[in-house]
Amino acid sequence: MILVKFVCAIITRSLFILVSLIGVWRVKTVKNDNMYWLLTVLYIPLVLEMIITLKRRKGQDYKWFSPAILFFLISIIPSIWLLELHHQENKAIDPQCRKLDSWDNVKSILPTNGTMGEETLKHLERMLTSVCANDWILGLHQVLLILLILGKWLLPLGGGVTRDELSQLLLIFVGTAADILEFTSETLSDVKENNNQLVYVILAVWTWSMLQFPFHLAVVTSRPQNSDEPKGGDGCCNLVLSRHSTDIWNIVECLFIQDGPFLVVRLIVMIYFDVFHQMLVFFAIKNFLVVVLNLYRLLVICQDFKPPSSSPSTSPPV
Question: Which range is the signal sequence, renumbered to this chain (predicted)?
């Protein structure tokens, strides 16, 4: 069992480093500057974390927090920022490229049977550099989010985390990843040329929303209700807080990390930058409804914190 944990821990972090390395290679290619290889310095915390975790915790992750996922985000987010900014600045002068919108185009990127060894690598590099910048960036976003979900699944469970809690967490990750990908792809496509301010705002909110993945308090804080808890005063409040801890953390994440910031950005895009279309309005309404429903849920939870009014005691009949 310990060997399996070691293997899973090493494989997961190796995949993290591989995807981050692809991102750095892409930055170096589009910028045409070998200095960007220095971004690989950001892998050092991830490597050190792997060594410490394997040595002291036998590969086991932590309960409330996953440092491996955090350091993976630190290693790849700067590359995505550089690619997004470069793409926005060079939209008008992008050369002809190969879109990944058909099987024929995808198959043309793969090396043929006749190429081997060094020729295969050269052919693959030539084909990858011919892919459109927008498809490259979208692909990195997609691989990043998928790998965050699979990585959390492969990482050995932290102490005190059950498989049931892990399954809930992974389902939350899937929904969160879909919302984040939709936010970045849809909102960045609305950015007009030479509007770097909006790009910075969108990328900052996207980076902030990615912090949901290393922290997983929304699931593992819940405890089963204990019927022996005192029913009045502080005991009642503690019982309600324990029972609704998962809901409270989900509400906090929605209001301050995901749907709340997403709604603010979309309103800025529509009102300040004068961008308007059906999908933008739809997703803004969706974010608004989620925020309102979470506030309503918070109000319902707050009602449970009110201790029940004690009824006047009646004297027993003589």
Answer: none
